[in-house]
Amino acid sequence: MTLSRTRIASGTHLRRALMGSAALAAFAAVPGTAFAQDNETATADSSEFGDRVIVVQARRQDESLQEVPVTVTAIGGDVLEKFSVDNVADVTSRVPTLNVQVGGSGSGGQISLRGVGSSNISAAFDSAVAFDFDGVQVSTMRLVQAGFFDTQQIDVLKGPQSLFFGKSATGGVFAIRSADPTTSWEVGARASYEFEEKGYLLSGYISGPLSDTLGVRLAAQFNDIDEYQILQDGTPAVNQERGITDFIGRLTLDWEPSDMFDANLKLQYTRNENDGAIGTAEIGCGPNGVADPVFLISGAVVIPGGHDCNVTDQRYFIPDAAPQLAPGVPTPSKAAGRNGVPFGETEIWFGRLLWNLDLSDSLTLTSTTGFLDMEAVDFDCYSYVGVFPGGIPGGAGCSDPINALEQYSQELRLTTDFDGPFNFMLGAFYEDRTIIFDTSQQAVNISFLGADPITGFTYDYDKTHTTKTEALSFFGSTIIDLTDRLELSGGVRYTDEKKVQTISVPFVHLFLQGPAFVAPGFFSGPINFDDSNLSPEVTLRYQAADDINLFASFKTGFKSGGIDNSALPSNSLSVAALSGDFSGLIFDSEEAIGGEIGLKSQFSDRTITFNATAYYYVFTDLQVQNFNATTIQFVTSNAGELTTKGVDLEFAWRTPVEGLNLSANLAYLDAKYTDTFLQPGGAGGTIDLDGRRASQSPEWSGNIAFDWTLPISDSLEFLLSGNAAYNDGYITDEATLNDFVQDSFVTLDANIGIGHPDGNWRVSLIAANLTDEIYVITSGGRPFLAPAGNAAGVPAGDDLVLTQNRGRQVFVETTFRF
Fold first, then answer.
1. What is the spatial distance between Cα 514 and Cα 569, in angstroms, rounded to a whole number?
2. Nearest CA among 663, 666, 763 for reference residue 722
3. Chain centroid to CA 417: how far?
4. How far is Cα 448 from Cα 301, in angstroms, rounded to an integer?
5. pLDDT value for 180
6. Cβ contacts of residue 137 below 8 Å, gap of 6+?
7. What is the pLDDT of residue 83?
8. Which of 782, 703, 809, 793 is nearest to 291 (CA)?
9. Cα–Cα distance for residue pair 786/794, rounded to 1 Å
10. Rg, the chain, Cα only
11. Which pLDDT belongs to residue 406?
């Protein structure tokens, strides 16, 4: 149960991954003729493309945003800095149809785009929107929890991106590129204080050349928030304010020993600590308008809820563990000795080594080696509510999950740059990944009747899921200039992915041992999953004028299935153990097919930009997971078919008014289930969601922003900027035909500041979500609700867990650079 028990041999693998690639890089670093530009670290003002040209890597090479035939929203580091955006969830106001939930004890978060995403309940699911960090696809949303900093650019690629980004990109890609070393020495720092949540942030960097061939950048950030959550008055909890602290440190080395070779190494350490895994989750009282009690052991234990049904006041009722459940954690565990007080700790090591070698004037070999080692442990009580008379904590359903992940990936790409009309890219990708999910849980909460008489443990059971994944893929793409203005591109990726899971249950409470549970000491043996796929793609781009491009694309996507790691010893796992058939734990692979047509245009000496995309995609076997709050069971399934279609519009204008820029985005989305989608656990049994709108899919959404810089003198300027985002509402769950619906809402961000025209210093007042608009991101039934017609005569419960956005944040911030 300790981290040391579940820890993977990270040091050995890290040395093997990075030193192996470094050895090959060192061998390649010999004098040559041509200069190979760093494909993964291009800046937005690269001289190759000219000033005011945004550079993206949507096809794994540097291309102008306005020329690449992919729907991309690019957000520069200057915009992120102006609005103090350092969390993935805060980007949603800039990208219509992007929906982000951060927090939870499963995967750690959820990203959905155009109505397509993956549940955050289980870490067994890869995200349908791939999270790409400095060219490495990260298989955990835990990295999202600590946010980002010192960022060069964020690119959000919409629609399937399997050809160039491979596995887990059926819905799109969220790509973050961190800043690289500068050509001259530079020091920068940022300090801010946030008044609403009472948090402060300190960050800084030092960057410059160590020699003519070696550059370095060292950056770090510390963020401490005292009142991330404030508990409702009367909540029986030690911490009446739940806080968060984050530390991120990053070292970047950039080496160019010759014209034919360059290498870039990034090493990052992240540590997140919090006062519980439950984030900004309110409990709604449902149609009955009553704060439902916690219903346990068929009504033998009924605990008053204690919550006040107000879901907009940002006051949360999250009690500590009940005294009967708190002390006896199966040891060793970090939850032991904390007396039922929630906490969370996440530690992540990330490494990426990128190098480019010019084999000739027109042939470049690129290697990207990635490594990730994560250990996360938390403790919280997932009854969410509960208080005994006298204000005694009544938190039930507690668990202490340990999530450990080790991921090693290697990609090689061979790219041509011929003078003629034909160029190509060939590549291979390999990933080796191990996920360990080790947790003690209270699903029955049997220790209200007495602790385990043998061990004294107060948990129902202890179980460990270990999932090993090997993925291998090969891809090839071509770009053919049919004429000076007509380009045909396309390619195909072959993917083969194998997964093996083993499940062990070393402890089961004595009172639960019997046919309804697996026996203590249970071991499943290997449960296997294997699937392969071909994902083709083809695009036609026509340059109608120098600054007008039209494109049409046919795309496919693939996300491997796997083995559910949320199976409980009292239900699906016990059934499988009795029969020896574990196929019920396997979920199928997710696939996408469709296409889009688009226009990218600029006018008036490129002061006006107008881009538009229309798309149509069909997703089969969309991976879905929900939680049945009455039976206390996870429900993993594949949606038969999801069809998404819509239009994305983008506008930007550098106005004739000096320093004033305007921009806007508008999205129309129609996302519906278009085939049989049976979901078990509804009030009337299994229901079919065919024809229902998908969750997190607003029909209309958009934003409008302005940025105004007014010179006051040669050494002083005034800055004013704002952003208004609109969302016309969406369904928040995928369980029934009448899931919770979030109404339309508007959020406002604003920034006012004064500083030096060269950016040497700046003082700003920043407001995020200025009007304090609270909206629901996801919803689900609250665990431990009384079922209808129960023998105890308790009215049927219908409380909902509503995960919400953060409220208003107001920062005073100062930055300097010299």
1. 11
2. 663
3. 34
4. 8
5. 96
6. 130, 131, 165, 166, 167, 168, 169, 370, 409
7. 73
8. 782
9. 6
10. 26
11. 95
CA angle 285, 289, 292 (to 5 degrees): 55
468 closest CA partner among 428, 500, 420: 500
pLDDT of residue 184: 96
pTM listed for this prediction:
0.90
DSSP reduced 3-state for 79:
helix
Q: Which of 141, 138, 156 is nearest to 79 (CA)?
A: 156
Q: How is residue 508 written in tokens?
A: 């089961």
Distance CA 335, CA 401 (A): 10
Residue 37 has what pLDDT?
Answer: 29
pLDDT given for residue 26 in this prediction = 41
Of residues 273, 272, 274, 293, the one with CA closest to residue 283:
293
Q: What's the pLDDT score for residue 17?
A: 43
Distance from C-alpha of 774 to C-alpha of 807, rounded to nearest angstrom? 6
Nearest to 741 by CA among 703, 772, 701, 777: 777
pLDDT of residue 488: 98
Q: What pLDDT sits at residue 337?
A: 79
By DSSP bridging, strand 172-178 and strand 129-133 are parallel
Q: Which two structure tokens, joined as six digits, stand for 504?
A: 């062990």
- The answer to whether the CB of 557 falls within 8 A of the CB of 162 is yes
Torsion-angle region of 685 (φ positive above 0: left; ψ -120 to 50: alpha; else: beta) = left
Q: Which two tokens stand for residue 216?
A: 């370095």
Q: Residues in the chain with pLDDT < 50?
A: 1-20, 22-47, 683
Count Cβ atoms below 10 Å from residue 528 Cβ, excluding itself. Answer: 12
Residue 656 confidence (pLDDT): 96
For 4, phi and psi rounded to 5 degrees?
-65, -30
CB atoms within 10 A of CB 361: 13
HEC string of 533-547?
EEEEEEEEEEEEECC
Return the amino acid letter for 410: Q
Residue 457 token pair: 């443990």
Contacts of 337 (CB under 8 A, 6+ apart): none
Sequence-distant (6+) residues with CB within 8 A of 9 are none
Supply the pLDDT for residue 452. 95
Please report, for residues 67, 126, 306, the alpha-carbon distance to residue 45 in angstroms, rounded to integers and kept in the order given.
15, 34, 56
Domain that holds residue 13: 3-817
- Strands 214-231, 315-316: pairing kind: parallel
Cβ neighbours of 684 (radius 10 Å): 6
Q: Which CATH number does the domain housing residue 356 bear?
A: 2.40.170.20
pLDDT at 636 (0 to 100): 75
Dig out the tokens for 250 from the structure: 């990053």
Please, which residues have CB within 8 angstroms of residue 54's CB and are 6 or more apart in sequence? 44, 64, 65, 66, 74, 76, 153
Task: Provide DSSP, 750-817.
Answer: EEEEEE-TTSSEEEEEEEESTT----EEEEEEPSSPPPTT-TT-PPPP--EEEEE----EEEEEEEEE
What's the token pair of residue 674? 């278009």
Dihedral pair phi/psi, residue 21, rounded to 5°: -70, -35
C-alpha distances (whole Å) from 709 to each of 52, 655, 665, 720, 761 are 16, 12, 22, 6, 14
Total structural domains within the chain? 1
pLDDT at position 627 is: 72
Peptide bond into 787 cis (omega under 30): no
Taking the CA atoms of 1, 125, 775 and 679 in sequence, report the sign of the dihedral they define: negative
CA geometry: angle 206, 212, 215, nearest 5 deg: 30
**What pLDDT score does 16 carry?**
45
CB-based burial, 229-256: b 16+ in 10 Å, e otherwise: bbbbeebbbebeebbbbbbbebebbbbb
User: Torsion over CA of 67, 68, 70 and 73, rounded to 10 degrees?
Assistant: -70
Is residue 740 a contact partner of residue 800, using CB atoms and an 8 Å limit?
yes
